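Action item from last meeting closed. Structure (79 res):
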């Protein structure tokens, strides 16, 4: 499940940033490497929630530094 979510996060982050997904990796820092804004992150979370029919606590995701950390948090919340 985590790997699937990780791939979706990379794809959705790339789309939000209008960049090629191959430029992102699990270790990409979403705060410093790509400067992902909170509104962009909220949009990505909303898409994941809709896709998996779940609720993700945004406040927990705010602590994620990398795309992989965000995927781990989401995977735990989805179960």
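Sequence:
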């Amino acid at each position: 499940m985590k790997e699937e979510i990780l791939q979706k996060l990379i794809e959705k982050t790339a789309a939000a940033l209008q960049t090629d997904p191959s430029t992102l990796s699990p270790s990409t820092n979403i705060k410093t490497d790509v400067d992902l804004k909170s509104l962009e992150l909220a949009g990505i979370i909303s898409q994941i929630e809709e896709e998996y029919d779940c609720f993700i606590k945004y406040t927990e995701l705010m602590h994620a530094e990398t795309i992989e950390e965000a995927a781990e948090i989401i995977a735990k919340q989805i179960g």
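Note appended to the action item: The radius of gyration is 11 Å.
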